[in-house]
Design goal:
Elements: E1 4-7, E2 10-13, E3 18-24, E4 33-39, E5 46-52, E6 55-58, E7 66-71, E8 76-81, E9 90-98, E10 101-104, E11 108-113
Parallel strand pairs: 2-11
Antiparallel strand pairs: 1-3, 3-8, 4-5, 4-9, 5-6, 7-8, 9-10, 9-11
């Protein structure tokens, strides 16, 4: 069974950087789908970045600014966010699909001030 815990959210100024972490209780790096989503108040949840094997994909809105990565030894996934904009403000969620189950973390708040 997989448990996901996000951390690293906070308040930053526009143009700043932040790194989110998603620590998993079990191994998640055996061909599983994993990624980051975000949801702003009153808006739909959107896919931000995904990591499937060695392939990565990014939403157009974050391409060139965000980088998804993982550390197998720590069983942790990261989202490096640079050049942050106010429109990046949202709750960010870690997501893993393993063994036919869809796992979500509780989310971490990211607020970017102008």
């Amino acid at each position: 069974q997989v448990q996901l815990v996000e951390s690293g959210g906070g308040l930053v100024q526009a143009g700043g950087s932040l790194r989110l972490s998603c620590a998993a209780s079990g191994s998640i790096f055996s061909g599983n789908f994993m990624g980051w989503y975000r949801q702003a108040p009153g808006k739909q949840r959107e896919l931000v970045a995904t990591f499937s094997g060695s392939r990565t994909n990014y939403a157009d809105s974050v391409k060139g600014r965000f980088t998804i990565s993982r550390d197998n030894a720590k069983n942790t996934m990261y989202l490096q966010m640079n050049s942050l904009k106010p429109e990046d403000t949202a709750v960010y969620y870690c997501n893993v699909i393993k063994g036919g189950y869809n796992y979500w973390g509780q989310g971490t708040q990211v607020t970017v001030s102008s």
